[in-house]
Structures are given as C-alpha cells and as structure tokens.
C-alpha cells in the first residue's frame, strides 16, 4: 500500500489516512496553519496560568482533586505527575497498529488548536510516529471515559522520555535512549499539557477505524464464500435476482446480492440444475438468506463508519480552548457514541460467522450435501475429511457469540464518584478486534471446504470467479484425497483471506465487488 505523507490539521482526518499511518507506516506532517492555531491556543493557556482565578487542568488538580489550587512553582510537576500516575496499564502489550492509531488521533486533536499544548509537544507526537517508535501500551487500564486515560498516558510518558518503546523492528528500548537515537528531544510538559495528552477516545476510535477497514474486505469475502457454498451445494442463484432484492430496499442487502450474482456468473454447476426437471423448490436459509444477513452487517458497518467519521472530525479534550478564547470544561471525552457501534459490529460479526458455519456444516452431512461423501472424506470412516474443520469453526462461532455481549451497557464508578458513569468503549474495541480475527478464520474454513466440494463436482466446472479462488488455494493446498494434516491448510486459507488474495482473484474476474 502507498505510504505517502499524511498531513494533519487541514480538516478532519480521513479514515484511510489513519490506517495508512497506523498499519502501513506512512509519515506525518502538521499543517502550517494548524501550527499557528496551536500556538494561538497556547497563548490563551499561558494567560490563564497567571490568572488569580483557578482554571481546571491549568492551576488545579484533576478529577476528584480538582478543588485544590496548585501553586505556579508546582505546575510542571503537576503535569508530569499526572502522566506518570495515569500510565498505570497492565496486561499484555497492545498491538503496534493500535498504539500508532491512538498516537496519530491524539495528534489530530492537538492539531485542531483546541487543547492549548505547545507546538513542540505536538511536533513530538509527529516525530514519534515518523521514527517508527511505538510506546508500550497495555491491555487493561481504560474505562473509556475521561478518555482512554491509561493507554494515552503511556504514549505521553514516552514523549517525556520515560517508560518503554519498541523500535520498528520490534526491539524493546528505554524511551529516553530510543528518542536520543532518533534525534528526538524529550518533552518538558507545561500547564494543561499533561491533561491534553490523555483526554480522548483515541484508542477505541483507532480500533474502530481499523476494524472498519478489515470488515470492508471480510464482508466481500463472506459473499465469495457464500457463493461457493451455494454453488457447491447445488443451490439456486435465482433468489439473488435484483428485482427480488428490491422488494426489501436495504442497501447492504442489494450490494451483497449483486456480489453473489457476479461471483456465480457463468457457473456450469449452477446451470446444470436450473432446468424444469430440478425438484429443488428452495434452498435452506443459510444459503438463501445470505444477502439478508451479509447485507444487514454491511448496513451496520455503514452506520459505524458514519459515527467514526464524526469522531475523526472531533476535537476531544477537557477543558478546551474555544475560538473566542474561552476555556470551558465539557464531557466530550465520554466514549458512548463509539462504544455503542463497537458493540453493534461485534453482534453483526457473530451473525455473519454463524451463517458461514451453517453453510459449511451442510457440506459435511450426506443428508444435506446432495451426493457428496460424508464430511467430504475420501473414504468415510477411514478418513474424517473436514469433520474437525467444522468443529474449529463452531468453537470460534461460540466464542464470537460471547464477544457479542455488549461492553457498553456496563459502567463502574471511579475517581471517588466524580467519574461515576463510564463507557467501557476501550473494552468494546478490544473484543471487536478478537471478533474480526474470528470471522476471518471462519470464512477461511468455509472457503477451504467449499473448494473441496467444487472439486468433487467435476466434471462440472465452477464459475470463473469461484474457480479463481480455488486456483489460489490449490497453489499451496492439494485437492481432495486421503486425510492430511489439516491445520496448516486452514492457516494458509486464513492468510489468503487476510492478504486479500481471494478477494483480488475474484475481482480480477468480476471487477470491484460492492
């Protein structure tokens, strides 16, 4: 993927730009006008720092300690102490692409000129990203309100030259040592800055945008898998006709049905049982209703993308510096809008995976697979075929159902009841990442199984598009035969889902899928 420079501060950050920086290492630059706005807001904060009236985050403590007025000589220590104390994460390290995403999104908010940080502080975030340094952030620590506090604090700690970072090659280093090696100076935080660096929904938003990028690929792949199952199980494509789908005008359903028609076009297998002699009146729901389920998931993704777009345009901090110079407290750091759609996507993923597993299972049952061997085995009884591949799918689908339980309906009070309602959006995002991976694996097993079934339908030939998928798989995985070690074949299929090989093979035949 092209990793051209991403300019921050010219307007809302584009989702594609965030993915380019987070996942593919694109460089970052702050727009010159944005630098002017950052400096202008900093002037406001410096004025308040010398005012007699206390201002939250500038000359007071934080959270439940906001009633304490902090003397000027202690304010630099106040900001350092805030970051150090809030960098309290625990558990496994968070993936580098997530940390890069939340670092970029915090920079995007700093570049709005609404936070009051120094120009050098904003530039330090760009420098960290461009050097390929990823602060060590831990799994647990965010309640998704007052921002993703602990994760963002670990990033702020790194720009202060404290804590640990990983180099682009994964090497773990002390932050101070790594900054020096890349010619970067640690930041000395001044009034308001520590607060500005940790108050945002950046972690959960970053994971949402990454998931949306993955789901664009996976839902198209789900349509490919469904088409292969319809074909391999001697199903009909008539139910996917555009006029039938238009009777229920959901845009996602129409797109999924169009993809199924395109992928099944010119299939000799489908044509072989299309005549009046065919007594198959209608297919099982898992085949016939694929556009309805995949389409509902698409519409859910579209709604989530709308929310993500609004959030990418936001300036989230507390307090904020308004264009007229006022500095006001607010609650924009609450993660509810993001948390809800993160949970909604996990529900949709569980259902798409569930219908995929049902389609796969039909291949394996002689009562339902229309003339294929039990479990697609070479010699059923001696061989087990894909019996346990379906078990693997079933185990993942069961896990996906547990991951679909919403995190955003939970709340737990914190900070001596000052922060008495929280979003748990970070938790929703963490489980969504697991769900995306699970869906990828379930679809890979369906395609692996459907490809074997298409082989077994010979001499009838599949559609050009599904044949292209089978050809990519067969470059590494042999066709039907006696039982082999199945796990490596599943993992190879997973890789072909993940790297878009299956999708690219189909689109080379059909053109871009919807």
How much strand?
Answer: under 5%
* Fraction of helical residues: 40-55%
Q: Total helix count?
A: 20
Taking all residues together, what is the mean pLDDT? 94
Q: What report would you give on this structure?
A:
- With 514 residues, the chain is mainly alpha-helical.
- The chain folds into 2 domains: 195 residues, Fumarase/aspartase (N-terminal domain) (Fumarase C, Chain B, domain 1), CATH 1.10.275.10; 304 residues, Fumarase/aspartase (Central domain) (Fumarase C, Chain A, domain 2), CATH 1.20.200.10.
- It is 55% helix and 5% strand.
- It contains 20 helices and 9 strands.
- The strands form 4 sheets. A 3-stranded antiparallel β-sheet has the order 4-6-7. It has a two-stranded parallel ribbon with strand order 1-2.
- A hairpin with a 5-residue loop joins strand 8 and strand 9.
- Helix 1 crosses helix 9 and helix 11 packs across helix 14.
- The protein is elongated, with a radius of gyration of 26 Å.
Topology:
Layout: E1 6-8, H1 15-24, E2 28-30, H2 32-49, H3 75-86, E3 90-93, H4 96-110, H5 119-130, E4 134-135, E5 138-140, H6 149-159, E6 164-166, E7 172-174, H7 175-181, H8 193-198, H9 202-232, H10 242-245, H11 251-264, H12 268-271, H13 285-288, H14 290-312, E8 320-321, E9 327-328, H15 336-364, H16 387-403, H17 425-456, H18 464-474, H19 487-498, H20 501-510
Parallel strand pairs: 1-2
Antiparallel strand pairs: 3-5, 4-6, 6-7, 8-9
Helix pairs in contact: 1-4, 1-9, 3-6, 4-5, 4-9, 9-11, 9-14, 9-15, 9-17, 11-14, 14-15, 15-16, 15-17, 16-17, 17-18, 17-19, 18-20
């Amino acid at each position: 993927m092209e990793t051209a420079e991403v300019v921050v501060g010219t307007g809302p950050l584009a989702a594609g730009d965030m993915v380019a920086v987070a996942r593919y290492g694109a460089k970052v630059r702050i727009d010159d006008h944005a630098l002017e706005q950052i400096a202008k807001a900093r002037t406001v904060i410096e004025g308040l720092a010398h005012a007699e009236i206390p201002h939250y985050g500038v000359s007071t403590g934080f959270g439940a300690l906001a009633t304490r007025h902090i003397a000027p000589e202690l304010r630099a220590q106040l900001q350092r102490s805030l970051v150090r104390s809030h960098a309290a994460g625990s558990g496994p390290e968070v993936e580098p692409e997530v940390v890069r995403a939340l670092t970029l999104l915090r920079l995007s908010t700093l570049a709005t000129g609404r936070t009051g940080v120094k120009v050098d502080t904003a530039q330090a975030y760009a420098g960290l990203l461009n050097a390929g340094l990823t602060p060590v952030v831990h799994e647990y620590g965010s309640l998704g309100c007052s921002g993703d506090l602990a994760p963002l604090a670990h990033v702020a700690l790194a720009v202060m030259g404290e804590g640990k970072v990983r180099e682009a090659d994964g090497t773990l280093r002390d932050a101070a040592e790594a900054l020096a090696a890349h010619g970067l100076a640690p930041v000395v935080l001044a009034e308001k800055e520590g607060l500005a660096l940790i108050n945002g929904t950046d972690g959960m938003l970053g994971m949402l945008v990454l998931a949306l990028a993955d789901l664009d690929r996976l839902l198209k792949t789900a349509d490919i898998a469904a088409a292969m199952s319809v074909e391999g199980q001697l199903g009909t494509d008539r139910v996917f006709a555009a006029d039938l789908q238009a009777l229920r005008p959901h845009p996602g359903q129409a797109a999924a049905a169009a993809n199924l028609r395109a992928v099944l076009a010119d299939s000799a297998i489908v044509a072989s049982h299309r005549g009046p002699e065919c007594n198959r009146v209608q297919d099982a729901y898992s085949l016939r209703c694929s556009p309805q389920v995949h389409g509902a998931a698409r519409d859910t993704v579209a709604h989530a993308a709308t929310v993500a777009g609004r959030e990418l345009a936001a300036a989230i901090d507390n307090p904020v510096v308004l264009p007229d110079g006022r500095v006001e407290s607010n609650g924009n750091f609450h993660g509810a809008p993001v948390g809800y759609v993160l949970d909604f996507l996990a529900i949709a993923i569980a259902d798409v995976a569930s219908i995929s597993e049902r389609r796969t299972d039909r291949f394996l049952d002689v009562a339902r697979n229309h003339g294929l061997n039990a479990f697609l085995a070479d010699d059923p009884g001696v061989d087990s075929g894909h019996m346990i591949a379906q078990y693997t799918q079933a185990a993942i689908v069961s896990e996906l159902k547990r991951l679909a339980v919403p995190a955003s309906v939970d709340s737990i009070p914190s900070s001596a009841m000052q922060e008495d309602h929280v979003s748990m959006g970070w938790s929703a995002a963490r489980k969504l990442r697991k769900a995306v991976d699970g869906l990828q694996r379930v679809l890979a097993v369906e395609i692996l199984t459907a490809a074997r079934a298409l082989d077994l339908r010979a001499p009838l030939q599949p559609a050009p598009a599904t044949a292209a998928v089978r050809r990519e798989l067969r470059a590494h995985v042999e066709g039907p035969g006696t039982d082999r070690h199945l796990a490596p074949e599943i993992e190879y299929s997973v890789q072909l889902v993940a790297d878009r090989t299956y999708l690219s093979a189909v689109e080379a035949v059909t053109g871009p899928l919807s």
